[in-house]
Design goal:
The protein contains six helices and nine strands. It is α/β, with parallel strands linked by helices. The protein has one domain: P-loop containing nucleotide triphosphate hydrolases (Rossmann fold, 3-Layer(aba) Sandwich), CATH 3.40.50.
């Protein structure tokens, strides 16, 4: 059972100026995101996935239309001003702090909003415990990406938005990351990610497909199984 959505988009349009032309990155998108499931935004390069996630996370404004929050998020608050424990965003570029170790990066939100559950289990689950005392520059791209996910999950946010969170993972770790995301969703959070990866799309609870800034398909999986 789905219950109530945590975020609703109504007729959201987002345009960018590029030189003399206007690009419509999102065109009249209406969408509801639900807790308890992993929703994947799919679609070809340039279809609007990053823009959709950025508008939902409040990093980009909509030119028209509305993004509305619902319980357990506070109502009437722009998503860009929500606390980390309410909404966490993982950008494609990760934005790790180079001066902090892997462990310190994951712990960073807990400094702002202590304490929550400890991170050792999270480090283990993401297979980064063995490099917790290294700096991001001493970790692989995939390890850095899992560190950014650990940071986002640290406060168990009600809504997790992650842009291509498996983009740097090998096949085995795609399954690992997805299972961590699913555990978070099945604990009652909403998880929205973007992906090109067929393994991620096949294992999602719901796939929203974009083309030229429009939603062209919205499929709910009949049953979701863990991928390995
Ligand atoms: N800051 C920007 N300025 C101008 N155009 C932009 C900007 N950001 C996105 N666009 C354009 O908006 C459209 C949607 O881009 P978006 O990054 O959302 O696509 P995407 O589906 O995430 O693609 P990818 O799979 O390559 O990451 C594209 O045509 C892109 O060129
Ligand atoms: Mg993108």
């Amino acid at each position: 059972m789905r219950g109530n959505p945590i975020v609703t988009l109504t007729g959201v349009t987002r345009r960018f100026r590029r030189g003399g032309e206007t690009v419509t990155a999102l065109a009249d998108v209406s969408l509801e995101i639900y807790p308890g499931e992993v929703t994947v935004a799919a679609g070809p390069s340039g279809s609007g996935k990053t823009t959709l996630l950025s508008v939902i996370a409040g990093l980009e404004r909509a030119d028209s239309g509305a993004v509305q929050t619902h319980e357990p998020l506070p109502a009437g608050v722009p998503t860009g001003s929500l606390a980390w424990r309410q909404l966490a965003f993982v950008p494609q570029a990760l934005a790790l702090l180079d001066e902090l170790t892997v462990r310190e990066n994951v712990e960073l939100p807990a400094i702002l909003d202590p304490p929550g559950a400890g991170s050792p289990a999270l480090l283990e689950a993401l297979e980064i415990a063995h490099l917790a005392d290294r700096y991001p520059s001493q970790a692989s791209g995939g390890e850095q990406q899992r560190t950014a996910l650990g940071r986002a999950l640290r406060l168990r946010p009600a809504l997790l938005v992650a842009d291509e969170p498996t983009g740097h993972q090998d096949r085995g770790r795609v399954g690992l990351v997805l299972n961590v995301l699913r555990q978070h969703a099945y604990s009652g959070a909403a998880v929205l990610i973007s992906s090109h990866d067929e393994a991620v799309i096949a294992a999602a609870d719901r796939v929203v497909t974009l083309a030229d800034g429009r939603i062209v398909a919205d499929h709910q999986a009949r049953s979701a199984g863990y991928i390995r």
